[in-house]
Amino acid sequence: MAQRILALAAEEAPERLQEALQSLGEGEVRRCPAGRVLLAGKGRGVRPVRRAKAASPRVRCSSHGVLRRLQLYKHCVLLVESGDLHLGKVSEITGLLMLEVAHLLPGHALAELATLFVDVIKGGSLSNGKSLELFSTVLTALASSKESLAYGKGELNGEEFKKQLINTLCSSKWDPRSVIHLANMFRDIPLSGDELQFVVEKVLRMFSKLDLQEIPPLVYQLLLLSAKGSKKTVLEGIISFFNQSVDLEVATMPLDQLRHVEGTVILHIVSVINLDQDLGEELIRLLKTEQQKDPGRALCPFSVALLLSVAVKHRLQEQIFDFLKTSITRSCKDLQFLQASKFLQDLFPQQYDVTAVILEVVKNSAFGWDHVTQGLVDLGFSLMETYEPKKPFGGKAADTSYGLSKTPAQQACRLGASILLETFKVHEPIRSDILEQVLNRVLTKAVSPVSHFIDLLSNIVVSAPLVLQTSSSKVTETFDNLSFLPIDTVQGLLRAVQPLLKVSMSVRDSLILVLQKAIFSRQLDARKAAVAGFLLLLRNFKVLGSLSSSQCSQAIGATQVQADVHACYNSAANEAFCLEILGSLRRCLSQQADVRLMLYEGFYDVLRRNSQLASSIMETLLSQIKQYYLPQPDLLPPLKLEGCIMAQGDQIFLQEPLAHLLCCIQHCLAWYKSTVHLCQGTEDDDEEEDVGFEQNFEEMLESVTRRMIKSELEDFELDKSADFSLSSGVGVKNNIYAIQVMGICEVLIEYNFNIGNFSKNKFEDVLGLFTCYNKLSEILKEKAGKNKSTLGNKTARSFLSMGFVSTLLTALFRDNAQSHEESLAVLRSSTEFLRYAVSVALQKVQQLEETGQTDGPDGQNPEKMFQNLCKITRVLLWRYTSIPTVVEESGKKKGKSISLLCLEGLLRIFNTVQQLYTARIPQFLQALEKAAFQIRQSLVNQFSSAEDDFNSRETQSLITVLSTLSKLLDPASQQVLHNLRGVAGIGAEAFSKDIACCKGLLSLLFSLHVLYKSPVSLLRELAQDIHACLGDIDQDVEVESRSHFAIVNAKTAAPTVCLLLLGQVDKVLEEVDWLIKKLTSLGSDTSGNKSEDSSQASDQTQALEKGVILQLGTLLTVYHELVQTALPAGSCVDTLLRSLSKTYAILTSLIKHYIQACRSTSNTIPGRLEKLVKLSGSHLTPQCYSFITYVQVRPKSTVAKSQSKEDEAAAISTVMAKVLRDTKPIPNLVFAIEQYEKFLIHLSKKSKVNLMQYMKLSTSRDFRINASMLDSVLQEHNTEDAENEPDNNQVRTLCFYQ
């Protein structure tokens, strides 16, 4: 029979085929198509199937026809999934069966066929998934069927039957090989919202069971499926999977394979978002919501990379960047908040850092993530521009390039620079774009600070100078605009591109051409830029034979620079090049003072780096100084000062900075004598020439020294009666003369001390020079004090170098050599000279703190500056601790004492080290040995001294120094604990009525305490002391006499200690409020998370709840003491009332958290919360109402003391105004209490625990006018005088609270 059917199917006779099919019995129907017809179709294509299908419609209504068609479909499905057919024939068969399935099969047949599909999927029999196209058609037809279909023991309509099938399908086990086909199938099935959610969750759960390479196509199918809905679930599942895959990458999959898969998935998501904008909006909403709960889950490297890829679409870029910038600053603020509190660090040992995540994205983008790079570049520049250094109005922008990023804005700006730098290193195609944008911003932001962009440019050049040769044209274009840039920008830009000049001749030649044009410019800034550029070239293009640059302050750190300048130029050409530049610079010695000043300050560095230019530079300096030097040995003064100034109309200008010229000569000569002889040439002519100018300089400096000591002020046309005001030409000229003479004296002081070799005669010369300097200094101070001029009050910058200052201080205070004693006694005999030496050290440290460098040799060398700081610190610390201030001040005439100057110097040094040398703080502290102990001991001595000997100013300085020093210590070190115990001991034993000292000591105690543990126990003890000192609000109650801290006494308790205490309480409340917000996010996250992490989150939640309740419980005891204290009217009462309102608001937030917890889980409230509620009901709320009554009633007795009617009316007006001011926070406090009790009632209902049993009935406070009290006041203060009418009206408007 089967052979006959096959033959008829092959013929063009459908009628005969139909008759043959009708003649088949039921058993034959079941056997024949399966056994012969369909199997035979493998060789003959789909013709038998098509013929059989064509014959079927004619008997559509008969049961036999339905059975035949059903058997045909079943066996076709099995055949298609058997894997025995070619894919082309499979597609033909599937397409043929799909055409009229809804018309050929009734509902029960569709249900049977659909059940077959489900069984095939559950059995894992799908081979290619082609039959699933038919399955989707069957389910769609089944959903529209109106027949009642048998299901179990009952019946269901087609739609419900389809739902049951989908539920069965998604609840069964899937073969990982068929997941992609199933996901694709569901796209063609109409699904309700719940069904779609069920399907999506099932597919997401299958991610972990698939091979890594199968994830991208499955993700793409899911994204297409999300067009129906459940976008949030799809995105959340994808991000969560790749966030968790970071933990598994090392153990289960290669890193590069994972990164490529992530990149492909991101591309799929971006492509779908381009078609469906709602998916992009949903992504941003999802991450914003998750970021509030758990930033670590929301912003992982995968999600950040995804956001940056999507940000290329300009419609979403602004939203995404705003979100990322907010997340970055919030993360920085949270980290800063945690670092300031040991209590929070213990509860949050590891805090999420979004900056590390973004830098990891840059690192991951090396694995072919080209679609992320543009977003990274845009984000980097956006961060740098949004959080760039701000320029204050009328001032100079703070340069943070040499310091530590402290504020969140500074950290965000640094992050932007790091993103761009790392992206530049990783991605070669984007390098030219980054470089061009950086250079454009340096050029166009002439008004705004550009130091952060210059630092970035410097790092870029150092990282790859050879690579930048391909972009040298952009650098040369920038050089054309040097003349129009501020000098600071020019110097920074030239320093940044310095390594590029070493490897690119074209860049160097273009720079020289620009500089040669600029040196003849009319603009002063252009000429200064030219000088800066030429000095840079001289420092870095060494002539062969020059000394090594081991002492250079700015060593080139580009390891990629393999080419040397000598490979391109021979020695003669290079030397000629440098000499040509020197010739151009000599022309600048006839220009303005600012240009000359740059030359004098730069010659020393050129000489040290390019020693073969020594002869030319020294000859240039010699010819310049000879223009002002008077060689006659007896002529006074030895220098022509009148040649240093220039008159233009009625204005006087400095033309030649003579002191700077002499300073440059002194430093160059000292370096030349000590260094250049080591590599001196063998030619006698050169030696004689070098010795010639060396001898000339020595004789000249010796003669100037001798004659300067002999000179009187009148020889310089200066005396005490001269005009030094800056408003007249004569005054300006005298100021210029005085500053030049003082500078010359300082230069000669350093020169003679260095060459003196501890000679008594030389030290006498030093003292003589200082006498001349001091006379002029005193005159300028006196004139400045009289004129009260801002410019006059500025101290002239010292010409002494930092290295010499450290050497001088060490010799004056710490040199105990017997051979030096006699000579040093000359200098030590002058207290003014000792004070001057310490003052100059203070000035140098201040300059280093503000600018990151100092004037003079090695001023830009961080290593040398750090060494000098250590030496100066040891000397100042020894000087202060060895000689008591009391002894010193007994013979002091005027000015600050040396000890106070030493303290001020220590304070500035500690600040400078914290700002500039963070990495070297341990080395610095090691050099100081027991500095903290010595300062604490000095503080103890101050507090234990007699009242007449107590120096408040010195004590405040000691406290500030100790506080700053404590910031340098590692919070985890034992030194912090020693400091805490020491300061606590001082506060407990030191009785002082000095307000400022008390405030400083307690502030220090608080700052140390938070580094060790929470300060709530300390706050409770202080509150008890305040209560004991001020008494109780109930005069009949005798307060127990307790004194934990002697520093708290009747003089300091209020308002000083009270306000400090409440300020610290507010900080603790901020921490508690922050923790409660974290609790809320953890609670909402745990309630929706049913994974294994929920138990860990629950443990963390319990730890946080315990910490919050313990903090609040102790704070309630603090308030318990304060609200019973008879605080004076004013700021203390007002601050306390506001603080109480904040406390009740936080208590309400905690209760709301437990209400939410009771809704989501069946957990009962913990016993510690009951204790907290009980404590608030017994120890705080009743006392708060008593304190409110105390605040309101107290003014009445004050008014009653007035006697005369006029005085009485004025007193009423004043006191009542104060009443209104003091009682303004009272309604807010009462409202906060009532809100707290309201939510307690809600929690009691939810938890089935009666928490209100601990709360007493509140006093009725409806804030209406109390008529009886108002009448009594009006009767007492009634007056018949009409002039007092306004006052009475004012009284009538007052509200007295019941």
From TrEMBL:
<dbReference type="InterPro" id="IPR029315">
    <property type="entry name" value="FANCI_S2"/>
</dbReference>
<dbReference type="InterPro" id="IPR026171">
    <property type="entry name" value="FANCI"/>
</dbReference>
<dbReference type="Pfam" id="PF14676">
    <property type="entry name" value="FANCI_S2"/>
</dbReference>
<feature type="domain" description="FANCI solenoid 4">
    <location>
        <begin position="1018"/>
        <end position="1270"/>
    </location>
</feature>
<dbReference type="GO" id="GO:0070182">
    <property type="term" value="F:DNA polymerase binding"/>
</dbReference>
<dbReference type="InterPro" id="IPR029308">
    <property type="entry name" value="FANCI_S1"/>
</dbReference>
<dbReference type="Pfam" id="PF14677">
    <property type="entry name" value="FANCI_S3"/>
</dbReference>
<feature type="domain" description="FANCI solenoid 3">
    <location>
        <begin position="799"/>
        <end position="1005"/>
    </location>
</feature>
<dbReference type="Pfam" id="PF14678">
    <property type="entry name" value="FANCI_S4"/>
</dbReference>
<dbReference type="InterPro" id="IPR029313">
    <property type="entry name" value="FANCI_S3"/>
</dbReference>
<dbReference type="InterPro" id="IPR029312">
    <property type="entry name" value="FANCI_HD2"/>
</dbReference>
<dbReference type="Pfam" id="PF14675">
    <property type="entry name" value="FANCI_S1"/>
</dbReference>
<dbReference type="InterPro" id="IPR029314">
    <property type="entry name" value="FANCI_S4"/>
</dbReference>
<feature type="domain" description="FANCI helical">
    <location>
        <begin position="278"/>
        <end position="364"/>
    </location>
</feature>
<dbReference type="InterPro" id="IPR029310">
    <property type="entry name" value="FANCI_HD1"/>
</dbReference>
<feature type="domain" description="FANCI solenoid 1">
    <location>
        <begin position="68"/>
        <end position="273"/>
    </location>
</feature>
<dbReference type="GO" id="GO:0006281">
    <property type="term" value="P:DNA repair"/>
</dbReference>
<feature type="domain" description="FANCI solenoid 2">
    <location>
        <begin position="372"/>
        <end position="535"/>
    </location>
</feature>
<dbReference type="Pfam" id="PF14680">
    <property type="entry name" value="FANCI_HD2"/>
</dbReference>
<protein>
    <submittedName>
        <fullName>FA complementation group I</fullName>
    </submittedName>
</protein>
<dbReference type="Pfam" id="PF14679">
    <property type="entry name" value="FANCI_HD1"/>
</dbReference>
<feature type="domain" description="FANCI helical">
    <location>
        <begin position="549"/>
        <end position="781"/>
    </location>
</feature>
